[in-house]
Amino acid sequence: xxxxxxxxxxxxxxxxxxxxxxxxxxxxxxxxxxxxxxxxxxxxxxxxxxxxxxxxxxxxxxxxxxxxxxxxxxxxxxxxxxxxxxxxxxxxxxxxxxxxxxxxxxxxxxxxxxxxxxxxxxxxxxxxxxxxxxxxxxxxxxxxxxxxxxxxxxxxxxxxxxxxxxxxxxxxxxxxxxxxxxxxxxxxxxxxxxxxxxxxxxxxxxxxxxxxxxxxxxxxxxxxxxxxxxxxxxxxxxxxxxxxxxxxxxxxxxxxxxxxxxxxxxxxxxxxxxxxxxxxxxxxxxxxxxxxxxxxxxxxxxxxxxxxxxxxxxxxxxxxxxxxxxxxxxxxxxxxxxxxxxxxxxxxxxxxxxxxxxxxxxxxxxxxxxxxxxxxxxxxxxxxxxxxxxxxxxxxxxxxxxxxxxxxxxxxxxxxxxxxxxxxxxxxxxxxxxxxxxxxxxxxxxxxxxxxxxxxxxxxxx
Length: 462
Fold this sequence. Notes:
The protein is mostly helical. The protein is built from 18 helices and no strands. It has helices at 2-44, 48-55, 58-85, 88-116, 120-123, 128-142, 145-160, 165-188, 192-217, 232-264, 268-282, 286-304, 308-344, 348-362, 365-381, 385-409, 414-437, 456-460.
């Protein structure tokens, strides 16, 4: 009886730790999404050409953002283990390599983006009348690329040390500043799309500087500049973990482009319903991504502590809480689907069709949550190759091929297209879960602690 009570208490402590880490990230993502909607609406008030000038390079921006995201995931896997070991020297060494990678990536991406900015709108099929404006907008937001990379990768480093509040505050300030600058530069100064680009560039710069300042204050991350040099061992770990993540993002991004292209060929009303419904769904799965980030950190820390008990408890608790949250989120999405679509479009036909899609996808939200949290576990372990293989295969062999058949061969409607999308998410969840079902995910330490009463007191302070 006493053992059961201890086990329940320990699981509750794990849940509390995950929640404390996840909530700031969830708030950050929700507010960022809402502010992005406002930002898009502000540009949208300038007309269709303005909206097209800004949105035509969105996919390229996603690809660019994949680089710092991959660096960030590598940082979490390495630094969180050092934090678990309470090895400041190792975490500082990893921090210095993340710094070098971030600056190098920022410089390279800046050069590439500025050099290609005149060509990207053409490649993306933009109409000739907006190509110059779209190119200039993309150039402006690419100028502070070093700060953009620092903002994402250093934010991940801070989360790896269990500091999720600071990145949340900085990101919220960045988005709020962007809204204010957009209002001043777009409407008051009359700069239109260019003003929107300047506002974003200034916001990126300020947030990057703030994130760097927070990064330098952290005891686990504050390295000495005089000892700054490339470390082959740590860099090798970064590339081993981060490269598959980068490839995953690239494959997924290209898949989304092809998928959207197939849906757009089905007509304006159908594509509008699809696009708005996809945007509306985003806010309902943000909580899952918040817990994914917390799970990655906790998994890394448990490995660093050589604590097998915590490692197993984090897995079970994070999976249960994320799937439960996504079940409730799916129920909320089902009940509010038409109301949300009505807020986002004035077309009743689009609202009705979009709400039908949201009701359909609501039933798959728990599977989507399972997929998200399993990704977090793999990222915390540094096992990113399997995620790359799974996500790439599912995207192209399930979503893209079957959507192509539905659109081009069988000429079906949007309902069947969303079934393909749902099948893709469920297939990913199942593939990611298989190693857990067959107990192929092993604790990566030969002599784990956390077994026996002598460790119980230490483990309570998770």
